[in-house]
Amino acid sequence: MTAGIERPVWTRKHLLTINELSREEILFLLDTAESFKEVSTRSVKKVPALRGRVVVLMFFEDSTRTRMSFELAAQRLSADAIDFAEKVSSTKKGETLLDTARNIEAMGVDIMVLRHPAAGAAEHLARAVNCCVVNAGDGQHAHPTQALLDLFTIREHKGRIEGLNVAIVGDILHSRVARSDIRGLQKLGARVTLVGPPTLVSRDFEAMGARVTHDFESILPEMDVISMLRIQKERMTASGFPSVREYVHFYGMNRERLRRCRPDVLIMHPGPVNRGIELAADVADGPSSSILRQVTNGLAVRMAVLFLCQQAAAGGEHAP
Amino acid sequence: MTAGIERPVWTRKHLLTINELSREEILFLLDTAESFKEVSTRSVKKVPALRGRVVVLMFFEDSTRTRMSFELAAQRLSADAIDFAEKVSSTKKGETLLDTARNIEAMGVDIMVLRHPAAGAAEHLARAVNCCVVNAGDGQHAHPTQALLDLFTIREHKGRIEGLNVAIVGDILHSRVARSDIRGLQKLGARVTLVGPPTLVSRDFEAMGARVTHDFESILPEMDVISMLRIQKERMTASGFPSVREYVHFYGMNRERLRRCRPDVLIMHPGPVNRGIELAADVADGPSSSILRQVTNGLAVRMAVLFLCQQAAAGGEHAP
Amino acid sequence: MTAGIERPVWTRKHLLTINELSREEILFLLDTAESFKEVSTRSVKKVPALRGRVVVLMFFEDSTRTRMSFELAAQRLSADAIDFAEKVSSTKKGETLLDTARNIEAMGVDIMVLRHPAAGAAEHLARAVNCCVVNAGDGQHAHPTQALLDLFTIREHKGRIEGLNVAIVGDILHSRVARSDIRGLQKLGARVTLVGPPTLVSRDFEAMGARVTHDFESILPEMDVISMLRIQKERMTASGFPSVREYVHFYGMNRERLRRCRPDVLIMHPGPVNRGIELAADVADGPSSSILRQVTNGLAVRMAVLFLCQQAAAGGEHAP
To answer: What is the ipTM of this complex?
Structure first.
């Protein structure tokens, strides 16, 4: 996709996966997020960009952080955020997701933010409704705003993404964060290394263009960025998963490993951290860690996503 | 009740049942809703009518749709909506509904929207508090805003209600929607036919002035409007209730039955639909169905209800 | 702490316990609350004092009233209130309270209102974050806004607190309300008498400077204010707790006991009342009872707390 003088860079009313975005679209979104990040530092943390617009948060999986981040992003744009509380919803009464969504849309909603356990749910929804759909995580498939905030954070720290060596460590197999990060990083020219036990990081991932290794130690000195995935404790008992002790031994980030990294290495984690598992507490809280900055940037990125999709739907202007 | 130049048409600060409303009051409310419906089509979906007012949503029964509809209606009027989350409420600590309500009122609330499993709960509440009370469904007794949105939708499609033949099909016995619809339709001059198995639609309903029949087929050709009630699956195992298969066979609306109706028949359903039970999927999604328009109109009607009741309580003017 | 012309009276960005407040700070806060109480009587119940500020409600214990009171207080100051819904939070995923809080803070939150079952949780939190922390009840330790609203209500009714005889009746041992009330009342010069069965009101409380008695009858005629604590029914079966019948007999407030009090006695209760246990229904609803006024005043006091803490954090001016 090429932007001309007449053609705006961002024309999407949905954000479904990072795959569908061009390098140019990603950079445009990150630039927009940068201008929104400043809003959160003001005492009056508000811009009127989406005043009178309605954002509905449809979270069919628990996720306090992501839900709060989107809710605060909507508020900061002066939109009205409304919660679709699944626990008391009519999906329990045998209604399908699409029926539910069409009903919500009929109430005059502008943007649906969907978190759903089924891969492809957001795309499915986007085909059924006329309002904007933002994917806040669908099964093990995609989590595009997480990838965008990770890219934002890397660019903020390193000044660029092109040419960087980035490792993603952990349960790649079941991670939508990993899938979205890999695609986003590759589109912006980073070299991605996937690290973890063979059962969770098989050689098959090489087909995605990533390097695969099971030896965390060996790659430490070359990395500019190391992103530690969250371990799902509920999966630890499943076959293919090592014991926690074994996992920490081979794939946990700790002070000793950090010493073997470049001095300016950036240690990332999508949160919430299992302290002492993926990350030793002193590394999580140390100067190399960008965990809290990822959270802060997540809000700016989500403001940009809500704003740009809504603008594209309205057919209007794109500058914030 | 007759409106003069001095006397405003709407003087009620509560909306408890459709029964208490005069024909004139209903029409005035529908006209007000019509002017509010336009607001929902704007890009900035807001009017300042209830700015600084507080609407508390007291839902003691699950109902995502109705709760969302009221919450969005409140937001669109610029009121602050606040959720009284029953699951964590002090009613669990042995407090009565009235104590709870008086406490909430003491916090300076303007309107209480109550959904409660006990018939008469809203009326009970209205006698105990000074703020406005809107009944959002009380047991099997009444659901006046559902009736009003049904009337609004019929009038919108047919241009009138007077003289129309309207069938209500299903579990009339346990339905607050049916009770409220019957009264509302009769007040505006429609002829109501109740349809369903004898155990759910007994001849006793003739005392309400409605025609009762157990033969759905026979009445299809005469109807202008057919409203299909939602089947409560949890009641299906109760005695008196036919099997689902039998119910669908005799009382489900499908393509064949639709073909026997007038070409301009309006098929209504309060939602959420059990697809393949009350309505075949192609009928639910077809051009005769007004399901989604009922949802859209529900919001406009609820804006009118909140606005008019609050205006009456404040003793102010009525024009939106 | 002495206020000079240069030094503002209120310089705290956290409200953790009543203990830490000076007499002067308490009086300044009550005066500020008085000016906010007027706002709640307007038709547009809003002041722009905290516009664009974010208040996050972190309630790890159920408390509809206190949560609603803080949420309405935030709305009335034009702040954005956001709910941290514990039931779906990442604290379930093994995250600690402080990690959760640091993450929420990274989203640009201004004030955290914390209700937590662990004594000291609010203080713990205040040391970890840079934003304001307001204690909305921590274990059996403290509930400072309840104490402040009780002081506000007593002052409003009696014109003063200095020199008053105030009884607190019930389960002093397990009550954070009692602990906070005792300290607040003493700071403002009231004489506090603690009343209840020996297992719940031991002589040890005399060390706090309060009088202890197990004979409710004997002290009735001298009291200006009698505050009845809520009985936790779940504790009633524990050893040390009398039967409900016995409790009501010795420590319930009823018409007969009220007759033995001063005519202008003020009967208080933090709510929700167990009618027929702590208070007979006719006393709860009678002219001596200040229960609903306590609720109304709670909102004004919480507006003052949010406003003053935020102002102190921003380093700005203090007049409302």
So the answer is: 0.90
